[in-house]
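Subject: complex prediction, re-run

Hi both,

The earlier run crashed halfway through, so I resubmitted it with identical inputs.
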Amino acid sequence: MSVELSQVTKEYPGGVTALRGVSVAIAAGDQVAVVGPSGSGKTTMLTILGTLERPSTGLVRVAGHDTVQASDGELAGLRAHQIGFVFQAFHLQESMTAVDNVATGMLYTGMPLRQRRELARAALERVGLGHRLDFRPRQLSGGERQRVAIARALAKRPAIILADEPTGNLDSKSGAGVLSVLHELGSDGSTLVLITHDSGIAAEFPRRLHMRDGEIVEDERA
Amino acid sequence: MTELALPDDRSLPPRSPDGPSAPIGRARLPLRELFGVAFQGLRTRKLRAALSALGIAIGIGAMVAVVGVSSSAQANLIAEIDSLGTNLLTVSPGTDFLGNSAVLAPSSVPMIKHMLHVQSAAPIYQLTNASVYRSPYVPTEQTGGIGVDAASDNLPAVVGTTLSSGHFLGAVAQRYPEVVLGAQAAATLQITQVSGHVMLYIGNQWFVVVGILNPVKLDSSLDSVAFISLPMAEKVFQTLPEPTEIYVRSTQNDVTQVANLLPATANPQDPSGVSVDRPSDVLEARAAAKGQFTTLLLGLGAVALLVGAIGIANIMVISVLERRGEIGLRRALGATRRHISLQFLAESALLAAIGGIFGLAIGAGATEVYAAAKNEPFVVPLYALIAAPTAGFIIGALAGLYPAAKAARLSPTEALRA
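This time it finished cleanly. Structure:
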């Protein structure tokens, strides 16, 4: 799924300008790292790519759909079916098993629970947690929790996965495991956009967007 | 974690086609899933849910108890009426078609006694102008409101009462001045028992009190009357009185039929001048009225419910603020604003519905204790079984409106602001 931003700006109430005219095109299957210091607008760009927010000005097209014009329902539909998020804070539900956490990722597709659980089990196998299906988040290590979160994002086979500092809360060993899972996704053609401030992690990506002060200062391809 | 086993793709759904024309799939949340999510939300915070449901439980419990206690009392009254018999009919003179007071002929009594399905009949003859005094020196206007009726000897059996003291008018009373007092009449005259030859002065003649009746539940007008025999009435008052009321017991299954035939039997020339009543109907209506809710107690229950509803709204607002991350996650997973508000609405409604179910149990328990203490039957109206959880559900939904709207307005980017 291609994603396209054109002259996108984002201003928050109170006069904070997070993005100052960002233009970038990400083709289907691209694996992109977004690098930059805190406050450079990385997360804001991700929320706009992920249709969680609309830009103040500019054009955004996700899979050919103009997300500036689309309704709340249409954007939600796009997120439910096409976009998978991975967060730094995991956001797993403590009261649910790994399988149910992953199945919740497909809740808003309208898929019946049984099918969702089936896909969830497959996704957990895929991230190497086939032996942890009925574990609750607190019984899992940090790296395992993030892999559950990744399984939740990929179980519905989204066209694009957006990850915001997915290794930010993890030690380097667990972080490496999580990254290799994410890289594996590229092999089946998912678009991946990952935010990091770790240049070592960014170096593993074929394309790197460097951001500073709300602008893309360098679009670097390997 | 270097090698990952990739399962084959058969278990995965087909990838949506890419390109500008690819349609956006809709974000959906089936109703069953909605309540699943809501239930999950409550289960995660059990203590909080239990405490906030308690307010609703107490409110609904109070209301169920009020309804249950009054229904039990009512059921008790109706059971009492049933034990007295609903097959008693009264025949009395009505008005003829010209509007004048009609009279019942003395011959109507044997006619009624011979009717099919009539088990027994007892007439009374009201003696107007007759009054009862403790002595001839009592001023004539101080009647104490006690009437004098001539009655047949089977009256207590037919109206379903017994004597609290002595005996009713028997063979002796046909020839000698004996009197039996209704319960209220005896109380007014301050006569509690018949021993010691208590005498009363009726129509220039001393009468011996030989019996005191227990209250007549089916016709309390008989309680304030002094009864003498018909032959004595004729002798003392020099009149041939007409029946003023005939009490009729029919077989239980033929009450309506007998009631329909009674006017024509009692007065074949002018059936419209005969009025037939069923005293148990009046009592049942009174029982129904007595079973009406005690408004004050219901009001108290309503106040408790209101407080409970405010408690739920309060807790839900706090919950929304605490769960910003979860709300952001759900938005990221494809929930619309509406899905988010519905989730909190459903949570609130479900919480209060559970409160309603516990309230029903509390109310039923209170009714049971009350009924057992008063030795009454335990009755909770069937509608309460549905009304209690439903009322909880509706109240919860109302209480959840504001928190739900607040949740829907929250920024969907919260999940990213770790």
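The two ends of chain A are 21 Å apart (CA to CA).

- K.
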